[in-house]
Amino acid sequence: MDPAASARVNRPGASRLGGRLLAELKRMAAIFAYLWTVFGILVLHEWIVLSRHGIDYRFYGLAFVNSWILAKVVLVTEHFDVLPRWVGRPPIYRIVTRSVGLALILVSAYALEETVIGLVRGHSLADSLPTVGGGGVRGYLAISLIMAVAMVPYFTFRELGRVLGRERLRALILSEPSPPSEPGAERR
Q1: Tens-place pLDDT, residues 39-57
Q2: Mean pLDDT lowest among 27-31, 82-86, 92-96
Q3: What is the largest CA-CA distance in the chain?
Q4: What is the number of alpha carbons within 13 Å of residue 125 lying toward its C-beta?
Q5: Would you tell me the crossing angle of helices 12-52 and 136-164 to the nearest 10 degrees?
Q6: CA 104, 109, 115, 118 torsion-angle sign
Q7: How far is residue 57's CA from residue 175's CA, in Å, rounded to a whole number?
């Protein structure tokens, strides 16, 4: 047996660690793809609205970068189950609570990131605070609401995967549906 194969046999934890790392990378890629789609649609909408008013808007990679950063935040927050009170209740409670909670975390993480970048660039704290959703508390609440609604499909799929099983959910979504049975066919 070659030394590399011997080392793999003697370190079963290494293969488990590699498998867990790969699974986490896949989850992060899925979260990133979802967030990139959501942010991309929001940026596209902003571009359309501004272009109607003759305002030039360039969005070089903003959705991509923010999606990557915030995907990491989502991945970390998913490891903390802070919802034990919803165990045994309909999944909608977990979906709504997680969507609202994550939206608040994402908006806060974005505001913190932009503030730190502004401070590093030498701006004052007041000048470093990002103007979100038109500015002020109402702007932050509006963006938080938009993000909460945008996160509902993500957490719906997560909860359905938890309740039905990931493989069964994947089969339901990606497989050709079987033809519906005729009424009363079950009784025959």
Answers
A1: 888 888 878 888 888 887 7
A2: 82-86
A3: 78
A4: 0
A5: 140
A6: negative
A7: 41
What is the residue-averaged pLDDT of the chain?
79
Gap between the Cα atoms of 107 and 140, Å rounded: 7
pTM, full prediction: 0.69
